[in-house]
Amino acid sequence: MKITPGKIKGLEAVSDKRGIIAAAAMDQRGSLRSAIAKGKGVDKKEISNDMMSEFKEAVVRILTPHASAILLDPEFGLKAAQARAKNAGLLLAYEKSGYDNTKPGRLPDLLDNYSARRLMEAGADCVKILLYYAPSDPPHINDIKHAWVERIGDECRACDVPYFLEFVTYEEGVDEKSIAFARKKPEFVIKSMEEFSRDRYGIDVLKVEVPINMAYVAGTRACKGESAYTRDQAKDYFRRAASVAKKPFIYLSAGVSNEVFQETLQLASETGVNFSGVLCGRATWADAVPIYGKSGIRALEDWLNDQGVKNIQNVNNALAAAKPWFGFYGATSAAALA
Fold first, then answer.
1. Is 0.90 surpassed by the pTM of this model?
2. Cα distance between residue 262 and residue 319, in whole Å
3. Which CATH superfamily, name and number, covers 5-337?
4. Pair 51, 75: CB distance under 8 Å
């Protein structure tokens, strides 16, 4: 595999001195608006764009001194991007929030007034898209998604900017938090990582779910009842997923608590898999949303300066076993790739 100068520069910007991507995520839009509204006890229509920006700016300003990068959206996050610490690179989301629920297949769409070039002009070191993906979906659905991912890959190649693909697995008609889906999730994640590792997509970093649901791993603190896999089986799924990845990959927190995400990373570390870090959002700051909703910006800042910083430091401490992204290219440093 070869990597171009622009992509090297972008990946260096979002990783730490070890070549580990220890990034925070604050690109939530629709879900964040709904969560703030719930905290305030109002309809989400009453949550202004200024409130969205204010929340994001506080998170970015207080947490990025402890992160290698921040993921934001250009709709509400560009002002917040200016508040990030000098050590933190910037990833910008290219997709619209959510998906098309008027058609089957959870089809994605891009922001109307942005392109990879325009995201770079807005300050992005890297471009990220989110895709809901089910290997079990009908071929014509996934063919649309494959072409969509390819198209963005070609755009990022032309601009020589790193391309991060975040995929979230699902199955129509199945609760993704259920034990039924937990049993299917390993193969779904493995097949998705294998598919999007192909060079035709032009992806530089895969932002992936862990291949198990910790709530169903027997013997873990996260497991409160029935289990879908033993601890050894869970480790094997981590190894199988990592073995098919032909691109650097990082783990997303998928909305779990900070405690559960720490335990997840500990389990991943025990397996020795070559993950290159995290892009962690709600596991760091989600508990602050109702505080902001009820008590405002000062209360949010107080919480972030205390528990928020502790949360991101907990995640950072769990990254000791992560491997540098440039190792996927057979290099001992980013400079060696130049």
1. yes
2. 9
3. Aldolase class I (3.20.20.70)
4. no
